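haha ok so turns out i had the wrong file open the whole time. this is the CORRECT one, sorry everyone. sequence first:
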Amino acid sequence: MDILAYSFFQNALLGSLLASVLCGFIGTYIVTRRLVFISGGITHASFGGIGLGVYFGVNPILSAMVFSVLSAFGVQWMTHRGDVREDSAIAVFWTFGMSLGIICCFLSPGFMPDLPSFLFGSILTVGQADLWLLTALLVVVITVFALLYRTILSVAFDANFARSQRLPVAFVEYLMMTLIALTIVATLRMVGIVLSISLLTIPQMSANVITHNFKRIIAWSIVIGWTDCLLGLALSYTLNVPSGASIIFVSILVYLLLKVANVVLKKRQRQLETR
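then structure:
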């Protein structure tokens, strides 16, 4: 294929691999800890950071990272210290970030050509800086999981039990919320704000159909996530449609296929057992 000779497509393939590995680790924690809703709130709140970056002439990705981390900390603090329900705290930062981003974008002079890529994503626009960002963040995430794996596992499945064992639950929660926020922003170029949370949940859901082991879910979600990206890129190239939406569309189809196959296999097993 001639398209493989182009550097932008090579960057897209490498970026999808790095993002799949990164989301494999972070997404498994999100799904296990049941943080999908709060992660969605952080995703949309990051638009406030993008708007501030555009308005003040700062790199939107860097400003979005700072804003997302602060939003994640804000949700955590309001939930545990501010006597506010978690869903209410998420709604506050979700809507605040979106409204602030819209205001800043409208107040910024000139036209913002990158706005559609931040909202809807375009993996073909991934550059060297994005690849270095994904690589650096991946190294940090792998190091954190290697050093704190048992603690992260305990917190993910039962935070109250982890507290009873005197594990540093609060530290791990804030650390993981930081990594979740950074991962969300790092993958914005690929699928955008609108679809970013899907990259952190759907491959893990697909992996959970195959296995219930935490380590194996991470491994399978990496494989499934990269497969989704490759098939999504192929679909995007064939039909000339946005790559971000194509990747998510394919990932949902893969999940449905695995789910149907799992149901059929279980039904056959029951039939064999009853004979």
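The chain has one domain: 7-274.
again sry for the mixup
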